[in-house]
Amino acid sequence: MDVTGEVTELLQALIRNACVNDGTADSGEESRNADLLAGELEGAGCDVARYEPHPGRTSVLARIEGSDPSAPGLLLMGHTDVVPVNPDGWSRDPFGGELVDGEVWGRGAVDMLNLTASMAVAFKHLARSGFTPKGTIAYLGVADEEALGTWGAEWLATNQADEVSLPYVITESGGIPAPRPDGIRLPVVVAEKGSHWCTLSVAGTPGHASQPFRTDNALVTAAEVVQRLATYRPQTEIHETWRRYVEGMGFSAERQQALLDPVGLTAFCETLPLGLGRNAHACTHTTIAPTMVHGGVKTNVIPDRVDLQVDIRTLPGQTSADIEALLADALGDLADRVTVLGANHDDSTASPIDTPLWDAMQRVCDGFYPGSAIVPTMTVGATDARFFRTLGSTAYGFGLFSQRLRYEDYAVMFHGDDERVDVESLRLSTEMWTALAEDFLA
């Protein structure tokens, strides 16, 4: 059966529901996508559980119980929310879900509604076919991934662990084919950086803006704080996951040497295409990105407080104390002018690759791309996999994409403009989930 039309239509509908998560409790409204997915699954005879810890923040779970309690189970997990968008930067309606030249356009097309849709369609067909696995397989369409998972995976892992926890989990992203002379490489996300989101509060002294001479303007100080954070250069770290990725991707000896050189790597990243350079740099450095600023009360009042929101991504082994020390170093003599508020720290997490699921993924991918090899890699953004690793699950990020989707384009579209995915990739992912379930669980 050709599933292309089915998964394409489901992705279009998920995009059009516009479940935009801006980080506030009442945003997202993932109940729209939860209802859509539940309807798809219930129509195949699946029992679907709904979880709504906050109004509108709904996740859905469906299971096909295994016949052997000792057999390993697999959870396919896709999130249903998307990040906000500025339509001015788009060539098409970001929530139109248009199909143009074999590509579906819209916010979430690559992050990650394409996989959420393909997992749902594959699961539906498995259920409808009467699939009887030895190990349990479950599908989770989860809310709130784009804002730390508070109302989604974190809540489920804390409050419904017995229902959602399985030994193996697959979520975003991975699977962008990289052609090499000796066969295609398919990266699998086995680790992710940690996050340390915080607010830096900069103090000043209020006064009349008509007399700015010798004033203690918090906004001016904050501007210098931003500049210091932007120009700070943490040291390069060649950690084990990065080394395994570089050595497994089949790069030329020259490129491999450059990517593993802690002295020259940053300069080498400058020579790479934008998406590749950003990823290589982020995989090997603690990154600090000031992203939002709030301050001032009126045009003619010198501001006495400005708050900066900062997105910090951490490397394996870095603690909250490490990041506090790094911030102090970056700010220098301005450190005593800044108060750190509301830091939210999640450690970097990783999963092993010497597992039966890894072996099954390699076998299945070889059927789609003969001679291919899967390669462990790290994602520099946070995913819901971290909550399941904490529960003891082995969690990977994967999909299966066509060679039409280049990594360079994929990386730039993630949270960017003109997000889109080709329908051949949708078909490949859907068929891969089905083949993987039959290989690993039957």
What is the structure about, briefly put?
This protein has 442 residues and is of the alpha+beta class.
Q: Would you write up a description of this structure?
A:
The strands form five sheets. This protein has a six-stranded mixed beta sheet. A four-stranded antiparallel beta sheet has the order 11-13-9-14. A three-stranded antiparallel beta sheet has the order 4-5-18. The protein is built from 15 helices and 18 strands. The chain folds into two domains: about 5-190 and about 350-440, 3-Layer(aba) Sandwich (Aminopeptidase), CATH 3.40.630; about 195-345, 2-Layer Sandwich (Alpha-Beta Plaits). About 35% of the residues lie in helices and about 20% in strands. The chain has helices at about 5-15, 30-40, 115-130, 155-160, 160-165, 220-230, 240-250, 255-260, 265-270, 275-285, 320-330, 355-370, 385-390, 405-415, 425-440; strands at about 50, 60-65, 75-80, 100, 105, 135-140, 170, 185-190, 195-205, 205-210, 285-295, 300, 305-315, 340-345, 350, 375-380, 395, 420. The chain is an alpha+beta fold and about 450 residues long. The protein is globular.
Portion of residues within helices: 25-40%
Q: Radius of gyration, rounded? A: 23 Å
Overall, the morphology is: globular
Q: What is the total number of structural domains?
A: 2
Major pleated sheet: 6 strands, mixed
Q: What is the tally of helical segments? A: 15
Kindly report the CATH topology of the largest domain.
Answer: Aminopeptidase
Structural class: alpha+beta
Which stretches of 5+ consecutive residues score pLDDT under 50? none
**Number of DSSP E strands:** 18
- Give the terminus-to-terminus CA distance: 20 Å
> What would the average pLDDT be, to the nearest integer?
96
**Assembly classification:** single chain
Q: Tell me the name of the CATH homologous superfamily of the largest domain.
A: Zn peptidases
- CATH-level-2 architecture of the largest domain: 3-Layer(aba) Sandwich
The proportion of residues in beta strands is 15-25%
Strand arrangement in the largest pleated sheet: 1-2-6-3-7-17
The CATH class of the largest domain is Alpha Beta
